[in-house]
Specification:
There is one protein chain. By secondary structure, this protein is of the alpha/beta class. It folds into 2 domains: 119 residues, 3-Layer(aba) Sandwich (Rossmann fold), CATH 3.40.50; 90 residues, Winged helix-like DNA-binding domain superfamily/Winged helix DNA-binding domain (Arc Repressor Mutant, subunit A), CATH 1.10.10.10. It has 8 helices and 12 strands. The protein has a 5-stranded parallel β-sheet with strand order 2-1-3-4-5, sandwiched between helices. Helix 2 runs parallel beside helix 3, helix 6 crosses helix 7 and helix 6 packs across helix 8. The radius of gyration is 19 Å and the shape is elongated. The two termini are 33 Å apart. InterPro entries: CheY-like_superfamily (IPR011006), OmpR/PhoB-type_DNA-bd (IPR001867), Sig_transdc_resp-reg_receiver (IPR001789), WalR-like (IPR039420), WH-like_DNA-bd_sf (IPR036388). This is DNA-binding response regulator. It comes from Caldimonas caldifontis.
Length: 222
């Protein structure tokens, strides 16, 4: 899951990046409005954490740039501005949530998960497929009510596929989800993770689309 943090306070940005990376996010940080617009043009993010007071333009100008491009990427405004008028302005400009500094990092993660669920059209906080349950809040996977031990990379591969159920996911897209776009990955690495997931969660869970990628198999009716 890739997140863009737009924050001009270098220490706060570093703390956010460190905390969110421990939670499985791939985090890019930019410190001004111009850098934010460039990053949003060149990359696809699952969510944006946006400060309002920025050099080279305001956070609202970044939000306006995003929405006038019809980009639905979820945006959480994170700012010290706590007036009701500021909240209304931010939400009316297209933000999905508004968080006032200082805030608890666990609350931020919960809000990120909530906006992602809404963006994906989900209501329940967990993902299910047959007897497999994924709880992103705990990074926990269960099969038949029993916890399944996955490596970090296996978990990220599974989550990327489950979040895109009904679609084929290319190897490049999976590599980007697992490693954040690193190019120094062996060509068969994703295939190894898929093999391990099949071994742990069932051979029929993931279908290979030859020459293209992988997809979660359709659930069979009982």
């Amino acid at each position: 899951m890739q997140l863009l943090v737009v924050e001009d306070d270098e220490m706060l940005a570093a703390a956010l990046q460190q905390h969110l990376q421990r939670g499985g996010w791939q985090v890019d940080c930019v410190r001004d409005a111009a850098g934010a617009r460039l990053a949003l043009t060149d990359h696809g993010y699952q969510a944006v954490l946006l400060d309002l007071g920025l050099p080279q333009g305001s956070g609202l100008s970044v939000l306006h740039f995003l929405r006038t491009r019809y980009d639905p990427t979820p945006v959480i405004i994170a700012t010290a501005r706590d007036q009701l008028s500021d909240r209304i302005q931010g939400l009316d400009a297209g933000a999905d949530d508004y968080l006032v500094k200082p805030f608890q990092l666990d609350e931020l993660e919960a809000r990120l998960r909530a906006v992602l669920r809404r963006a994906q059209g989900r209501v329940a906080p967990v993902l299910t497929h047959g007897d497999i349950v994924i709880d992103p809040s705990r990074q926990c996977v269960e099969r038949g009510g029993k916890r399944v031990a996955l490596s970090v990379h296996e978990y990220r591969t599974l989550l990327a596929l489950m979040e895109r159920r009904g679609r084929t996911v290319t190897r490049d897209q999976l590599q980007d989800a697992v490693y954040g776009g690193s190019s120094s990955i062996e060509s068969n690495t994703i295939a190894v993770y898929v093999h391990q997931l099949r071994r742990k969660l069932g051979d029929q869970l993931i279908t290979t689309v030859h020459g293209f990628g992988y997809r979660i198999a359709q659930e069979t009716m009982a």
